[in-house]
Amino acid sequence: MENSLLIGLSRQISLQRELAVVSNNVANMNTTGYKAGGAIFEEFLMPGARATQFSGKDQRLSFVQDRATFHDFSAGPVRQTGNPLDVAIDGDAFMVVQTQRGERYTRNGALQINNTGALVTASGDPVLGDGGPIQFQPGDRDISINATGTITARQGASATESPRGRLRLVNFAQMQRLQSDGASTFTAPTGTQAQPVDGKVRVVQGAIEQSNVRGVVEMSRMIEVTRGYSQVAALLQQQGDIRRSSIERLAEVPA
Question: Do 121 and 98 belong to one domain?
């Protein structure tokens, strides 16, 4: 295959992968706690030099290589809901939830109480406190969650607030090492340790953090990537037509 076709193909592959990232962002614009993804590409110079057909000089071929994907962990806009079980995290921290695959980390604070009295996420995963899963008692009312994540409730007719646990909040020294495990949950690879948060992190009751995806930017990027892919495809088609035309004319040359 000609070098121009290989270079064009490398660009198409990178654009296809970037389109997958952008499409995922657009699909999760309304997902609570979702963090936008991005892709990083770089130039790859082929180590071996080859003589060009016309100049006779050695020239290193330049390809497009996808280097990595990343997450934008900046805070999304906070929306007040008035639901006492909804929480938003002000600061660099994650809540810890227990899934069937192990502990996961999320900023999706749309919480609820299941039929056994456990505090769970919208997916049904138990929310962990400092002492394990947070459990409510039958008849609990007037649930309160303060800025440190401490949860209290009044039981029945009692006017006294009883503790039900405190949200376990953690952060990471290298957050870019976290890997997606669902729309708004992350897993920490081996060697990445969760750390306790400092006093600057604050829990806001009755609010949720929305997705930090910028819809207009992502839609514009999707159009740009799609057009770029089409332009490369058209260029490769032209190269193929030229090659086929050359072969057909060569076949007509008398022996």
Answer: yes
